[in-house]
């Protein structure tokens, strides 16, 4: 059962119909000339209805630059054919499954920048927003040999597991010992009470 205070905390943490959460990775790295998926999903208390749902994807070349709208959902997906992207933008999400991702094909160095995802799903009253910083690489990053890291990680993990196990055993042993002492003390106290009650009778006789 929830206490009143805990119940209030749970209700306060629960999502309300006045706001929604939009989730996207803060940074995505893409290799020049490749295709990359810019993932954006959202949570909503309501089912997505195409007549009310709206989506905007915008691009910012720099932090202080103005946003350029290049993909929009109003009843259906509408691509804004910016010269920057041409026909390289493909919507690969599914709004009914709370996914509004898109794929950028043949990534160019000029595609670096910030991609903003704006979602509104009435009766939610506030529009959700998330941003992705796209970094374009000219070559694949070197692969690090993680064998040593894996071995060290496994060793540390095993050691911690043993330590935790030992601590649990010690704790259990101490708890049982304490319970045994409490039981012995209780027996001694009861025996003392019995003796105390019997002595006056013997003195009377």
List keywords for this structure.
alpha+beta; 27% strand; disordered N terminus; 33% helix; elongated; 6-stranded mixed beta sheet; 2 helices; Immunoglobulin-like; 3-stranded antiparallel beta sheet; 205 residues
What level of helicity do the residues show?
A: 25-40%
Instruction: Describe the largest sheet.
Output: 6 strands, mixed
Outline the low-pLDDT stretches: 1-18
Helix/sheet category: alpha+beta
Q: Strand order within the widest sheet?
A: 2-11-10-5-6-7
Rounded mean pLDDT is 77
Global Rg: 33 Å
Task: Assign the CATH topology of the domain at 21-137.
Answer: Immunoglobulin-like
Q: Which architecture of the domain at 21-137 does the CATH hierarchy give at level 2?
A: Sandwich
CATH H level, superfamily name of the domain at 21-137:
Immunoglobulins
The SSE string, one letter per element, is HEEEEEEEEEEEH
Strand content: 25-35%
Termini gap: 59 Å
The total of beta strands comes to 11
What is the top-level CATH class of the domain at 21-137? Answer: Mainly Beta
Shape assignment:
elongated
How many helical elements? 2
């Amino acid at each position: 059962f929830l206490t009143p205070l805990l119940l209030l905390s749970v209700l306060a943490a629960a999502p309300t119909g006045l706001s929604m959460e939009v989730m996207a990775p803060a940074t995505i790295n893409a290799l020049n000339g490749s295709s990359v998926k810019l993932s954006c999903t959202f949570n909503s208390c309501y089912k997505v209805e195409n007549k009310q749902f709206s989506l905007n994807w915008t691009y910012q070349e720099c932090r202080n630059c103005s946003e350029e709208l290049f993909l929009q959902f109003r009843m259906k997906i509408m691509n804004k054919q910016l010269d920057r992207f041409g026909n390289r933008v493909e919507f690969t999400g599914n709004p009914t499954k709370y996914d509004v991702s898109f794929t950028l094909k043949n990534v160019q160095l000029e595609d670096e920048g910030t991609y903003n995802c704006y979602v509104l799903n009435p009766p939610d009253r506030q529009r959700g927003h998330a941003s992705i910083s796209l970094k374009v690489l000219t070559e694949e990053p070197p692969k690090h040999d993680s064998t040593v890291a894996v071995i060290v990680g496994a060793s540390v993990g095993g050691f911690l597991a043993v330590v935790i196990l030992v601590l649990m055993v010690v704790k259990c042993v101490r708890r049982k010992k304490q319970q045994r002492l409490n039981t012995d003390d209780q027996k001694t106290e009861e025996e003392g009470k019995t003796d105390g009650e019997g002595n006056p009778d013997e003195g009377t006789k």
